[in-house]
Amino acid sequence: MNKYEILFKEILDGTRDGKLKWKQLNKRANSEVIFNPNLVFRQFSSQLTRGDSEFTVILVEKKYEATAFDF
Known about the structure:
Blueprint: H1 3-17, E1 23-25, E2 40-50, E3 53-62
Antiparallel strand pairs: 1-2, 2-3
């Protein structure tokens, strides 16, 4: 596994184990770092601790108008 796969697995395992507590944010939050923020449908965040550092993990769900991209 590469470093990104390891990180994603850590987030998934932390979510399954209940170590990561997700909360829903306003869909306009973090708009300065999200590509096409006007398409955000829902947004969630959690705090991830790795070693001595704490990170904010953001999960963004987008809604596209075109049915070909509707997921």
